[in-house]
Amino acid sequence: MYDRYIGIEMSKISNIMKRNYKNSRNAESDDDITGKHGWIIGFIAENEGRDIYQKDIETRFVIRRSTVSGILRLMEKNGYIIRESVCHDARLKKLTLTDKARDYLSKTMEKVDEQEKRLRSTLTDEELDSLFSILDKIENNLEEQQE
Question: Do 34 and 61 meet the contact criterion of CB atoms below 8 Å apart?
Answer without folding.
Answer: no
